[in-house]
Structure formats: structure tokens, C-alpha cells
Write a structure and sequence with these properties.
Class I SAM-dependent methyltransferase; transferase; methyltransferase; SAM-dependent_MTases_sf
Length: 305
């Protein structure tokens, strides 16, 4: 199957795309990065084929390349997953949400398990056969495959959670639309994940390479097909009929990420990220992570419009 070239932004529909001074190179295929002039989302101008995507997410990814090999938390760290799941459930409770919960990309089912213990009627969707099998062995209801293939009933869930998933899917708009379809009126979409790295370090690097007529070549798998911005996430949610209620940025602390960089590059990035961190914390800008909470309008809200 031939590679697909995108000529418009899936978040906002914009067609004014600006080439960036960066590309990924993997197995002799180049994946140039472009930026939407309307909403700022960055994405691969050349999209991998379904077969290529499947090959990237083998068992080794979930064992050694978890979170793209850029954070230190291993997939098998049950204690970390438990703490994360309980924190999420507290956040859901703070929204006043309860009832039926769907975890999209549920991995081995930690959130589904702990949600059930808290009284939720919870189930999951997970593309990894190994992870889904592990979850099922615990007696959890987990569909093995992607969200679109699950064909779940409409208006069935009070809350849909998606953590570090949307940036990986071939069609982010179709998946967002499916989330909206699955939510009950008044239901919540709770999204966590990476954004376009609008950090000081990356901004200077892209600008500098662009002025010199050079390109940053990342010789690694481009797991993130979409690099969202607050504006692009807002546009995407509006396009599928969801209303953004909260959007909070955060910054991965200096030294917590790993990558194929020289000691000099790592040192320079650490200094710039140290300057970046308080700006993100205090002003909610220049982050590289996001928590977005969106809501499907209640039936009475639709009647008023």
C-alpha cells in the first residue's frame, strides 16, 4: 500500500501547511513534519501505511519502547499504574462523573480494574494482543483492537478516558468523532497526552535550522503522527460537537526524558527546560503535556440552541 500524503489539517480542516525544518527517517522512509497555519498542529505530511503502523507496535514496543522510549516508567510497573489510576479516578470524581467508563488504550487494564473497585461499570479497548490478554486474564472486559473496530453502542458511556493514545491513531478526527458518539448527553471526555513541544529549546532549534537551510533529522520511529496544540485540540473538539471545559498544560521536568542526543545537546536542553518549567506551571504556556476535559452537551442544552 502506498504512503498517504496529507494536504489538510485533520483538527481544523486548514489547508495552509508550512514545512518545518524537521523530519523523521526510519527504514529509508522520510516523514517530513508540517505545521497548520490555522491551528498550529504539527503532523507527518507523509503518513505511514496501516501495515507499517502495525509493525511499529509489536510486543517489544510495550516492553522496551513504552511511551516511545522517552520516559522512565516501564509498562510493567504495576505500582506506578495503580497510583496513576487512583489519581485519575479522583479527578473523575471531582467532575461529578460516575456510571459507565471506557478506557481507550487500556494496556493491561489497571484503570478498568480500579474503576470497578470504585463502583464504575468499566471496560476497555486495547490494540495490543498481549496487553489485552493480560487484562482479560484478570476478568476484565477488554476489546482487542482499535476503537473504531470495537463498534460499541452509541450514547453508552458517562466518561471516556484516553491517555497517550490520540497522537498515535491514523485518523485523529475519526477517533474524536467516535468518542463523541459513544458519550451520553452530558458525558465527559478526559484526555491526557503530549502536545507539540512549544518549548524554548525546540523553538530555537527549529528556527535556527530553518534559517540555515538545514533540517533536523530524527532517525527513529515517528510514533506521534499528530502533535497537538491547545488551539488545535479546541478546534478538534468543536468539530465533533464537544465543549472544552478544562485545558491544563504541563512540562516534563528536565532530565526526565531520554533520547538520542549528545551530552552537549542534553546540557543545553536542561538549561532551557529549567527556564521553561516555571512559565508552564504559572502561565499555562509552553507545555509539552496536556490534560483536556471536554463534555458532550446535555439534551436540554441542545434544545436551547
Amino acid at each position: 500500500m502506498a504512503l498517504r500524503t496529507l494536504e489538510h489539517c485533520l483538527a481544523c480542516g486548514g489547508r495552509r501547511l508550512r514545512p518545518l525544518a524537521m523530519e523523521y527517517l526510519h527504514e529509508d522512509t522520510r516523514y517530513p513534519l508540517v505545521e497548520c497555519g490555522a491551528c498550529g498542529m504539527r503532523f507527518l505530511a507523509v503518513q505511514p501505511t496501516p501495515e507499517t503502523l502495525t509493525s511499529w507496535y509489536d510486543a517489544a514496543y510495550f516492553e522496551s519502547e513504552f511511551r516511545c522510549g522517552r520516559t522512565e516508567a516501564p509498562a510493567a510497573d504495576e505500582a506506578a499504574f495503580r497510583a496513576e489510576s487512583l489519581g485519575l479516578l479522583d479527578a473523575f470524581a471531582a467532575l461529578g462523573a460516575s456510571g459507565r467508563l471506557l478506557d481507550v488504550g487500556c494496556a493491561t487494564g489497571s484503570l478498568v480494574k480500579h474503576a470497578r473497585e470504585r463502583g464504575w461499570r468499566a471496560q476497555g479497548v486495547e490494540p495490543s494482543a498481549d496487553a489485552a490478554a493480560h487484562a482479560r486474564a484478570l476478568g476484565l472486559e477488554v476489546f482487542q483492537g482499535d476503537l473504531l473496530a470495537a463498534r460499541l453502542p452509541a450514547a453508552a458511556f458517562d466518561l471516556v478516558y484516553m491517555g497517550d493514545v490520540l497522537e498515535h491513531v491514523p485518523d485523529c478526527r475519526a477517533v474524536a468523532a467516535e468518542v463523541a458518539r459513544l458519550l451520553k448527553p452530558g458525558g465527559w471526555f478526559y484526555l491526557r497526552g503530549p502536545m507539540t513541544t512549544h518549548s524554548i529549546a525546540r523553538g530555537l532549534a527549529l528556527r535556527g535550522y530553518g534559517l540555515l537551510g538545514r533540517r533536523i533529522v530524527q532517525r527513529e520511529v515517528p510514533y506521534h503522527l499528530w502533535e497537538f496544540t491547545p488551539r488545535s485540540l479546541g478546534a478538534l473538539m468543536r468539530s465533533v460537537g464537544l465543549t472544552v471545559m478544562q485545558l491544563r498544560q504541563s512540562k516534563i521536568p528536565p532530565g526526565r526524558t531520554r533520547g538520542r542526543k549528545s551530552a552537549l545537546q542534553r546540557g543545553a536542553m536542561a538549561v532551557l527546560d529549567t527556564l521553561n518549567l516555571p512559565l508552564t506551571r504559572w502561565c499555562n504556556v509552553l507545555g509539552d503535556r496536556v490534560v483536556l476535559v471536554a463534555r458532550k452537551p446535555a439534551a436540554r442544552d441542545k434544545n436551547l440552541t
